[in-house]
Specification:
Two copies of one chain form a homodimer.
Chain A (H helix, E strand, L loop, with lengths): L5 H14 L7 H11 L6 H10 L10 H22 L3 E2 L2 E2 L1 H4 L2 H20 L7 H26 L6 H27 L3 H28 L2 H4 L5 H4 L5 H9 L2 H12 L5 H15 L1 H21 L9 H12 L3
Antiparallel strand pairs in A: 1-2
Helix pairs in contact in A: 1-3, 2-6, 3-4, 3-8, 3-16, 4-6, 4-7, 7-8, 8-9, 9-15, 12-15, 13-14
Chain lengths: 327, 327
């Protein structure tokens, strides 16, 4: 079977999405959509879907519309999340509610969500449509649930590691997992394979998000592309902070509680002190161990997918690329 | 064929929607959805869908999920529109962004939109699903376009009657029309019948919205359930105002322009004066004529639907109920 690398697939789906035109009326509705989809980004979800499909079939171009649906859905969530978080910038550009206004962000986001369903339905084979839409709809709803948990956790003191992992499973992993599963279903995979690929996606997604949390503290600011320490300043209850709170003792524990309770502080000082406590407690090692074990669990699930091992090489490579970035 | 009246169908679909439970986690996401769907309302779209289906088939209970999908979609639009309009009350109760907060309105609305697709897909027969979802998706997107035009018109001076009618076609009519068409498709109607019912819905929807505009000026406040004159106070470019601006002359025209340009005024005084100008110009008659002709055009389209005339009686009666209310 003719297989394509993730780089080749990315190029094609990127071109496909670039060529989608939203130059229709009313322009105030469609301009923000074109703007957001034009940001680019890594197109992780389309590429994962195409790689999963390519385990079973060659004609990846037949499901570009579904791939665009996943990307459109993902960008809809970023648009509305940025509005809810009142974030000013996304990928170095002003967010829609800043460049236009909050109502534009609401309504254009709604239209994007509807468009994502249209892409997903577009020429979807009759024997797949029910299962594809079921997987997509469930993931779409779970992403909203994850976002709500994330909001809820901001005002809670006692978030456990398990609760945090469940939140990021919903907010981040299930859409990556659904991308793989939908690709597999469209490729004609067995139910068992489709589910294995989904479960692989969940594990990789968790590892990916934990790594993002890790990089927010220990990443190279130039490579990471975001300011370092943002999560520390905002007391975001990440794996790192939750672990530190449960593992720290003595003066480390007191010091950490002090920094969390301060409403006014010097950012640099807080970041340096909290990072120091993380180091004392061994948080980076605990976090890296968790990332490694989730990643390894994911790869074991991929091993169990019933296609010959060499066909999985592109997917395995791409999972590696996702995890290696910026470390 | 066993047929049911709109009252019988309303009772059933009302019970079906009441029984839907959203008592799942996270409660902050699902409570607002349960709250909004519990408002009640006239369930126009489900009833229209069931009436159209019942022209062809008896087992209306098999499409209650799709009917709930239309109602969920409609309530999603109210939820987000109320947020965008910063409206405090809906059907005598605080709106979601007031009772909870704006982010809850955004996110719960998003989840409702996703749920509406799930209801629509749920047990949708394989031979109908593509056409049903196409009609639904197009209507859903067009409602957003209509809302955007409505927002655009607020800051425009020169809105024509045709532009206004196109805006309310998108914002109000297409979902009523799609409800009828989806019911027809699910009932196994011919393409021609399904389209005729859609076109009937467009005409009835336009008549219905123009009547709403009319009632905002000339309705009985107790029966209408909203304050009279709200559109006049906000200079909303309805059929009434646009017609008055183009038809008024002399002192009526000057007086109307004056009231529009005033940023501070006594509500009662403005409402009385502008209503007086409408009366001088003959706006109520022009509006009622337009409503009557749209309604008659709608009924003629219904006449052309290829089922025996007596089967159409319930649908014809319901269109009459929609139009007679509160006048």
């Amino acid at each position: 079977m003719k297989q394509q690398t993730s780089e080749q697939l990315l190029k094609q789906i990127h071109n496909y999405i670039e060529k989608l035109s939203y130059s229709r009326e009313p322009v105030q509705l469609y301009d923000p959509i074109e703007y957001v989809l034009g940001f680019g980004g890594k197109r992780l979800r389309p590429v994962l879907m195409l790689l999963a499909y390519n385990l079973y079939k060659e004609d990846v171009e037949t499901i570009f519309s579904q791939a665009a649906g996943l990307e459109t859905y993902h960008n809809f969530t970023l648009l509305h999340d940025d509005l809810m978080d009142n974030a000013d910038m996304r990928r170095g550009k002003p967010t829609v509610h800043k460049k236009w206004n909050p109502n534009a962000a609401i309504l254009s986001g709604d239209a994007m969500l509807i468009l994502s369903y249209q892409f997903m339905m577009n020429d979807c084979p009759a024997d797949c449509v029910a299962s594809v839409m079921k997987v997509f709809g469930q993931a779409a709803l779970e992403v909203c649930e994850g976002q709500q948990w994330d909001i809820d956790f901001e005002s809670r003191e006692n978030v456990s590691v398990d609760e945090y992992l469940e939140m990021i499973r919903l907010k981040t992993s299930v859409l990556l997992a659904a991308s793989l599963k939908i690709g597999a279903i469209l490729g004609g995979a067995s139910d068992d394979d489709a589910q294995k690929l989904y479960d692989f996606g969940v594990k990789i997604g968790l590892a990916f998000q934990l790594q993002d949390d890790y990089l927010d503290v220990y990443g190279d600011p130039v490579v990471f592309g975001k300011n370092i320490g943002g999560d520390i300043c905002s007391n975001k209850k990440t794996y790192m902070l939750i672990t530190a709170l449960s593992e720290a003792s003595g003066s480390d524990k007191d010091e950490l509680q002090k920094w969390i309770s301060l409403s006014e502080f010097d950012d640099k000082e807080k970041i340096a002190s909290v990072t120091g406590i993380y180091n004392n407690v061994g948080v980076p090692e605990l976090c890296m161990n968790k990332i490694d074990s989730l990643y390894a669990e994911g790869l074991r699930l991929l091993d169990e997918v019933s296609v010959s091992d060499d066909l999985k090489e592109n997917l395995r490579h791409f999972a590696g690329v996702m995890m290696k970035r910026k470390l």
